[in-house]
Specification:
Two copies of one chain form a homodimer. The C terminus of chain A is likely disordered. Chain A starts with 6 loop residues before the first strand and ends in an 8-residue tail after the last helix. In chain A, helix 3 packs across helix 4 and helix 8 runs antiparallel to helix 9. Chain A is of the alpha/beta class. The first copy, chain A, has nine helices and eleven strands. Chain A folds into two domains: 160 residues, Molybdenum Cofactor Biosythetic Enzyme, Chain A (3-Layer(aba) Sandwich); 69 residues, K Homology domain, type 1 (Ribosomal Protein S8, Chain: A, domain 1, 2-Layer Sandwich), CATH 3.30.1370.10. Chain A has a six-stranded mixed β-sheet, sandwiched between helices. The first copy, chain A, has a three-stranded antiparallel β-sheet with strand order 9-11-10, covered by helices on one side. A two-stranded antiparallel sheet of chain A has the order 4-5. The longest helix of chain A is centred in the last third of the chain and has 17 residues. In chain A, 38% of the residues lie in helices and 27% in strands. Chains A and B meet through helix 1, helix 2, strand 2, helix 6 and helix 8 of A and helix 1, helix 2, strand 2, helix 6 and helix 8 of B. Strand 2 of chain A pairs antiparallel with strand 2 of chain B.
Chain lengths: 250, 250
């Protein structure tokens, strides 16, 4: 399903603060939606702590398996910001202070403000392209298929806008959402499974959400061919019309 | 750091809808904070699609490495709900309709409402303990060190409350948060790194957040011994007091 002409991606979120629950990640959901709109299939996301061995292992596992790997977090000026060094180690390239990065940072900092700590943010793996950061200047970077961005959502989002034009994209997935109008999944589930098996060119999902007042189910048809999506969606609408339910979840 | 007497955990979020960006995950952040409060260290989180091979591989990678694995999503009545079967396959145990689960579901459904699809929700790996679901009745389960819960946040949260008393917990991590009061990371970063190296019994992080009005930095000291936390926090306060800055980020 959905395998033709696809470009795949993974996200690696780096940071103890996400795993302790102190900071709630907002980047996975944002990047997921963004990549879907570009026609890139996000296939996996991981969150790992600020531990070099863990970060390097995750970078290597994900960059080898998917067309792109997006990392967020760990590129600031403090000792727990180890992402650039981890990317360099994973790709087995050197890392040093990058004059282009320092030039970007000079747009913001006076020479005497470029402290040793801030210059950590100019450490860029050798051979990387920089990704501009219009908010706080210290750049992200792209090397091979690894795209390294900040963890602060507003900065990450600006970097993503700046790197997006450089990415290969596939045929965009189109989505049709059908409201089950109170019909429970437990009523339509078996027939929907048969219908799904008859429509291998699309992916069909059923998603309950609970509002307190009860469940609301939506059936989502995703695919890259409009005709195949329409055919499946029409059958689903007919199926739902044939059925009645009590509005209960599941 | 923080290795003594720790109980570790991972989270596996299962669902195409998270990776497409259609649904924004709220479970990782909730579980992360919950486990921290219990004294369990969350070490990794992953999001994978509704693809059996992917789910099984992730379950095995994570359950073998951490004391507990919490899964969310994929235990409803439709064809894309494959988590219970994946757990059974990963643990190499059988799976069948569970009479205890059916009894729970009878509290809600009349006999004629127990459709084939709904009975999918009673498929439980052999040997699992059930986790009650006060909202929609179909239970989660715990088998070995794998805890399988619903993806709908309100149901997941109720299941987590029900399974929590059964978990082994470690010494709870205590946290001290110190506001940098406008001092930029780029000013205190180098000295903080030295301070961190002198205090191996605690973990020190520096976290910027961007409000639009500017950056606000907080330094967080985490540890399991109050004396070690206090000693590091006192030094950090003295360090910050010695420094002045312009309030700029990074």
């Amino acid at each position: 399903m959905l395998e033709a002409e696809t470009i795949t991606a993974a996200i690696l979120v780096i940071g103890d603060e996400i795993l302790s629950g102190r900071t709630k990640d907002k980047n996975i959901g944002y990047i997921a939606e963004y990549l879907t709109n570009l026609g890139i299939d996000l296939r996996e996301a991981r969150v790992v702590p600020d531990v070099e061995e863990e970060v390097v292992a995750a970078i290597n596992a994900l960059r080898k398996r998917y067309d792109y790997l997006f990392t967020t977090g760990g590129i600031g000026p403090t000792h727990d910001d180890i992402t650039a060094d981890c990317v360099a180690r994973a790709l087995d390239v050197g890392i040093d202070q990058d004059e282009r990065a320092i030039a970007m940072m000079r747009e913001r900092y006076k020479p005497e403000e470029l402290t040793e700590a801030r210059l950590r943010m100019a450490r860029i793996p050798l051979g990387a392209e920089l990704i501009e950061n219009p908010i706080s200047r210290a750049p992200g970077f792209m090397i091979g298929n690894v795209i390294t961005m900040a963890g602060v959502p507003s900065i990450m989002q600006a970097m993503l806008d700046n790197v997006a034009p450089k990415l290969r994209t596939g045929v965009r997935v189109e989505v049709e959402t059908i409201d089950a109008h109170g019909l429970p999944e437990g009523i339509y589930g078996t027939e929907l499974a048969k219908l799904d098996a008859r429509h291998p060119q699309v992916s069909i999902g059923s998603y309950p959400s609970f509002t307190g007042a009860g469940f609301r189910n939506q059936i989502v048809v995703r695919g890259r061919e409009r005709g195949a999506i329409d055919a499946a969606a029409d059958e689903i609408r007919k199926l739902l019309a044939q059925m009645t339910g009590d509005g209960a979840p599941g």
